[in-house]
Structure formats: C-alpha cells, structure tokens
Amino acid sequence: xxxxxxxxxxxxxxxxxxxxxxxxxxxxxxxxxxxxxxxxxxxxxxxxxxxxxxxxxxxxxxxxxxxxxxxxxxxxxxxxxxxxxxxxxxxxxxxxxxxxxxxxxxxxxxxxxxxxxxxxxxxxxxxxxxxxxxxxxxxxxxxxxxxxxxxxxxxxxxxxxxxxxxxxxxxxxxxxxxxxxxxxxxxxxxxxxxxxxxxxxxxxxxxxxxxxxxxxxxxxxxxxxxxxxxxxxxxxxxxxxxxxxxxxxxxxxxxxxxxxxxxxxxxxxxxxxxxxxxxxxxxxxxxxxxxxxxxxxxxxxxxxxxxxxxxxxxxxxxxxxxxxxxxxxxxxxxxxxxxxxxxxxxxxxxxxxxxxxxxxxxxxxxxxxxxxxxxxxxxxxxxxxxxxxxxxxxxxxxxxxxxxxxxxxxxxxxxxxxxxxxxxxxxxxxxxxxxxxxxxxxxxxxxxxxxxxxxxxxxxxxxxxxxxxxxxxxxxxxxxxxx
Amino acid sequence: xxxxxxxxxxxxxxxxxxxxxxxxxxxxxxxxxxxxxxxxxxxxxxxxxxxxxxxxxxxxxxxxxxxxxxxxxxxxxxxxxxxxxxxxxxxxxxxxxxxxxxxxxxxxxxxxxxxxxxxxxxxxxxxxxxxxxxxxxxxxxxxxxxxxxxxxxxxxxxxxxxxxxxxxxxxxxxxxxxxxxxxxxxxxxxxxxxxxxxxxxxxxxxxxxxxxxxxxxxxxxxxxxxxxxxxxxxxxxxxxxxxxxxxxxxxxxxxxxxxxxxxxxxxxxxxxxxxxxxxxxxxxxxxxxxxxxxxxxxxxxxxxxxxxxxxxxxxxxxxxxxxxxxxxxxxxxxxxxxxxxxxxxxxxxxxxxxxxxxxxxxxxxxxxxxxxxxxxxxxxxxxxxxxxxxxxxxxxxxxxxxxxxxxxxxxxxxxxxxxxxxxxxxxxxxxxxxxxxxxxxxxxxxxxxxxxxxxxxxxxxxxxxxxxxxxxxxxxxxxxxxxx
Lengths: 483, 484
Known about the structure:
The structure holds 2 protein chains of 2 kinds. Helices cover 38% and strands 13% of the residues of chain A. Chain A is of the alpha/beta class. Chain A has a domain at 3-255 and 460-478: Alpha-Beta Complex (Amidase signature (AS) enzymes). Chain B is 40% helix and 20% strand. The radius of gyration of chain B is 32 Å and the shape is elongated. Chain A binds chain B through residues 80, 82, 88, 90, 95, 98, 100-102, 104, 199-204, 206-208, 234-238, 314-315, 317-318, 320-322, 324, 326-328, 335-337, 341, 360, 363-365, 368, 372, and chain B through 42, 45-54, 81, 83, 85, 87, 90-93, 140, 142, 144, 146, 271, 273-275, 278-281.
C-alpha cells in the first residue's frame, strides 16, 4: 500500500513512530494531486508552499515531543471555509480573487492542531447542489468512475480523500452535502449536531441548516477530524456550549442492545434495489453484533424535501444579498448603482440565481405564510417526529442516497431529479440530530453505497460507535478506487 | 386648523453609544469626526462567513430607555432580518426586532404651553443596527463610509397621539433628555445621533377616524421636524379643502426649500421580506437582569423636578433649569448632600456658574470648583466671614485657580472684621478725627450717619461686618447726641 492510500490513523502512527515526516507525507500528497487531480478536479486550488511550511512546523512540534490527533497530517478544506489570506471563493465567480482577512473557526482549529492544509476543495456554488457540477470553476469527477459525479456539494472534499489526495477533509452539510458525497465515494462522512462546530468564517448558504462536517476513509479518521474542529465558539451565537467528548475513545465496537430504528417511510416501492439490498444486509450485520432492529415511523418524511427547499432558499436569498461588489469581490461596471449591482450579480451561476429567486418569492409579502411560514411549522413537526423516534431507538438507519453516483450531466437539466438525491438526508438538517454515512457495499457497476446512521442531539459518539462496529465487521472501507 | 386636527406619530432613531457595535466587537467612533472606514471590521463590512453576536451593553441601554419610557420590558426578544438593497447596507439586510421587541406599551407625559400635561403613548422601542453613510460627490461617483454600519440603534415608536408640531417638539425634546440622562447618547443631532420620522395625517376635529398618512423621513433636527410637520399639516388641509385626497407615500424634507418631496409611493414600497435571523437564537432577558438594571436606574428628570419642588422647596423654574441636564442636576444633588442649602446652591449655580459656563463653553463637571467647594463658599457667607459681594469675587478666583474659598479668603485677607473691640476703636477714631461732623450730628444733623458709616467702612477696607458696624455705630452716635 502506497503512503497516500493509507488512512489518517495509519499515517498518524507513522508520524508518532518517526517512520515518516509531515513534509514527506505532504510531498507525497502534493505529488498525488499533481498526478491525478487533472482528471478528478477535487481541488480548486492547492496551497503547496503554505502546506510545506505548515508541514515543517508540524515536524518541529513532533520533534519536540508533541503529538495530537491531526499533527502533521495533510487535509483538504472545502472552498466555503475561509482561510486567512488564501483565496476562498465558495465555488463562485462572484468571489473570484477574494482573500478573507480571517480564518474560519475550523481553520483556526486545524492550524492549532498542526494539520497541514493542502488546498481548497471544489464545491457546488455556495454549497447549492448535490453533484459538484454547479461549481463555477470545474466539475469534479468521482474517483471510482471519472464519468460520474462524486455527489455534492462537498464533492471536492470527498473526491480528495477518496482519490488519496488528502487523509481527511472538511465539508459542509446543509441538506446532505457531506453524507451524500461520502456515500458516493466510499467514505465515512459525519454531519454533527447543529451548533457542534462553529460556523464562524464558513460562507453561509442556509444559516439554520449549515453545519461543518468531516470526511475520512474510516470511522476513526472521521472521528479524529471532528474531534479537532468541534467545540464552543462565542463568535457563533448558535454554537453549543457542551464539552467535546473524545470521539475516538468512544469507538468500542460494542453495540449489544443498541436499538436501531428503520423508518418504513424510507423504504419505498421503486427504490434502487441494489441500494435497498445493501442497506438491509448491513442491518443484518448489526443485528448479528447484538443490535436490536425496530421498524419505526417518520411520518413527516414526505414533507422534508419541500420544507428543506423553502427554508434553505429563503435563508439563501438573504445570505447572498451581500455580494454586491462594493466592499470585496469583483465588481461589474455600470452607469449607476443599480446597473453596477446587476452586472456584479450576473456573476452568480444559474442554480444560485434560481434559489435566490425561489427564496425571495417564498419570503415575499402575501406568500410568506403559504411558503416560508408553513415550512417553519412543518420543520417543527419534523423535529417532533425525530424526538418521538428517539424515545424508542438510539439510532435511525436508512440509505444515505436512493441511488449510487450518477453520470455527469444526467441531472443538471432536471432540478427535481437532482433534489431527490438528498431525499434521505435533508430531514436530519431540519431536525436537531446528527448523522453520518458509512460504506455498506457496491452496486453492480462497482459504485459505492452508503448507510446513513442518524442519532439524537449530540449523540455523535453513539452513531460513530455504531458505524465503527459495523465497519469492523465488514471490509467495504478497505476498498480503494483504481485511479 | 380650526376645522381639522393633526394626528401625528413619531419614530425616533437613537444611536446607542456603546463601546462596540450592535453585533460585533468593532469599536464605535464619532462617525462625523473619524476618518471614513477607520472603524470597520469584517462583520460590519458584511464579509462572508461573519456572524453576529448581540452586544450586552446595548441590551442594557435599551432596557434603561424602555424603563424611562414606562414600557414593559420583554423577556423574550427575537431578531429579524429586514432585507433591502442599498450600498450603505453591508449585508443586504438590517438586523432588527420586529415581532418581539425589548420594550412595549409605555408612555411619556409632556408639559404643554398652558401648563397642563399630556400623555403620549409609546408603542414600542426596539434594537437594530445603523447603516453606513453614502455621499454622492457628483460625476456619478458615490462614496460610502461604513464607520456607522452596525452601530446600535434604538427605534422608539409613539402612538399617533401627537396633535401639533409643538407637542411633537415637547415629546421629542423629552425623549432626547431621557437618552442623555440614561447615558445612551449625547443628544447631538448635528451628528445624526438622533433622527426623526413623522407619520402625519389630519382629520376633522372631534372625530376619531384615521385618515391616510404620509411618512416624512430623515428629519435631523427639532427645527426640521417641526417645520416638516407644520408644512404637511397646511398642505393636507389645503388638499382636503380643495376636495382632493392624500396619497400614502414616503416623503423627504428639503431643508433649503422648506418643503417635503416625494421619495416613494405606496406602489413602490419595499417588500422587506422580514424573517427571523437564523444566526441569532431568541434572546431571553431574565427577570434578575431586568431587576438589576431597574435597581441601577438613575433618578429621571421628572422625578428630579418633583423632588426639587416638593422636598427642596425650589421654584418650578429653578427645578426645571437644574434638572434639564443630568450632570448639572447631579452636581446640584452632590452640593446639597454636602450640606448646602438647596435654595442658595441653586442660586449660585443659576446666577453665577451658568454665566461662567456659557462664556467658557465648559460643562459643569469641567469647572475648577467642586460642589463641596461651593458649599464651603456659601458657608463662609453664612458664617459672616465674608459678605455676598466678596463671595462673588472669591468665586471668580476659585474658577480661575481651583483654590478653595477658604484659602483665597485667608491669602487675600478678605475675612470680615467682626471683632467688636476693633470696630469700636475705629468708630471712636473716626469721630475723634472729625470733630465738626460729630458736633453737627449731635446738633441734630442725623443724615450724617451715612458719612460716618462710609468713613468707618473705608478704614475697615470694606471688610467690616455690616451688622456689627451698624450696631456699634448707632450706639456711638447715640452717645454723641446724648452728650451733645
């Protein structure tokens, strides 16, 4: 196994034992990017010089006897996560050349931990998409099949780890943008409880749904990433105060007596048979490990997608109003303020424009009650749905996506088909829970399938341990794409 | 306005001069004095990924004003986004309080010219953030300064209880006084720290209909506010009398032409698309916090005036004048607490210190005399050490040098001569030196008493205690008459 194919946990051991250095790992990762990223297009930009500088600093810390969960480990971050002095564009032309004068909270955390940030990974523009095809810069390919999408919107972050161009990465998950790409790329992707990770310095799509998530090749890798970036931040008023547990220590592999709920509303006629079979089989594995499987109801499931799109687009229509070219970012030229603003905003891509228009409509006078107002009420019912379910079970298991990775271009002309990619993931963002996707098989095209495990508020340890137990009993996570 | 009466509601926008901005740690500066864009941070520039955190001091200030306006202080507070595009609005929305403001249902009693008081109901007061400032410098160039962007604002909304420009002025002046008293701001209208919007309609007197109103925005002085109101009242009367109707619109005020002008018609009204700000969870102001702020509330102008009148027996005029400004009132209170007689302290402040302050453009707290120092000066007069005229000279010295009254009196030997023996000696000397006058007096020319008094006081260099001098002189002159 080459150095880049190893897991985060494995290279961390090599670093601790002095068998490799952060500089060596970083150079290996940068060479790998050089070799394959012209095909995959996971990174919108790499920061090789900065990365090597950070690697040297990490090596010095290791030499001084320090160790840490990510010390010296090369990682990638989504192009929505601000990095002081590094161009951060949210996958949009409207932020082309924008270099924030601040670090996101998670960037600070990574830097403090001594992680090496090798670059910014591709994203659908402002996180709006499920395939990474809506990036204004490039379309990322799935390392398992370059003609297919990696999922989205954190497709770049997933493809980077899956393609052995990073040992872990950060994404954001507003409606499934970490879990779906994890599922499509045979990775573990965790979207923690809203407020567990500070959103400070992360470019907003839909503020009440956005949450930073982490990718890893294994459950422990993802747990290590999450452990570093989780925590309270007084600069984010929605940040939770609870202390951060040691996620890696929670991975005992013991799930005897764990109650797993399977919502019958998530298994419907006409769903992809291979996906259903793989997920059902994974439930059998967990039952064999001592978990109890219960059929449960999530009655509001059918309203989740509509609710999600109304809330997400409404918030987005307001969040994106700041991009007027007056204070930062490229500015269009026009004869007056209105024309200048219009020409600046012409830099938004069509999907972003659609969502701004949808959200503006949903919030407008006379329509608010019918759309945004109703969506808020539906959201409350969805939260109650989950609360009731978690009175009975510890974990809810579903497919992560109804399908495996689709062909590039297949869904771009049909927004509804694209939106359906997220049908199993959006409910979680509307609720107060946490969730992850863990590899659970392959379809007949050798494309990865993901199992989604959802937990109650701040039950990250529970879902991570459940995923870990499953992962240790299977070998899906050891498969690598033949890139 | 015989046939019609005015129906006016005022919205007052007051900047709250906290250390930092409403939702970030960025410092608040004097937006007129400071260099443009010198007090900005990524949040006040609306940069991507920046998040708001509510300023605790702004909440307390808003509570204080709410309490001073006799409002209910609400425990459940929420923040909404008001969405509209303008280059001076960095985020494309203003964070404000729509549904759940900090203060509701208050009132303020104003004094009218005829001496009666009138209650103006206060609908609400809510927190929000100010915008930046746009200046159009011609040639199609506009400049924008974001120093003011994000400065905490309190919007105070009255019910349409105001019936004239005079009432509007009395109400606005009183709100301004409360803002200054509570330390919320300096009341400096030239710097746009307080701005007014007036909702104006008229109706036939005696009815209670609410006719279509116009809203006049951006009134930046009492003068502009009263002028705009009076202009609109006349204009609306003229339109109704001509059989016309009023359009609901937003107006501006042209200071040069003394006219309102149309900014936006009802059809062009913004759809602000208010919705709860997802970056700010509801804010609970718990009862303990409200109680603490209430317990720290200072005495407000109305209470001060009443106390000065009723407990300290000051005239209504003196009470008003002293309570007008919080620093003056507190200076006065300190002097009274230090043992000064209220009436005398009031006289000295109003008759002497104010004149000095007017001339030197100083605040009372800038003066070199302290409240205790004034009380000492008054004590010297009361105790007979110096007389009133000398005291005025001593005060001038005190204001110039900062020395205490006592040390000035001692240094300059200004103390009155009250020693009977010394005074008697001088009286006898004056009589002995002026035998002809003495003889004339004894012969019945009692008018000469004044001349004797003058000679004696001259000998005493003006420091003779007038009471004692009078008494001893009368006695000596009586002896003269008897012996003559």
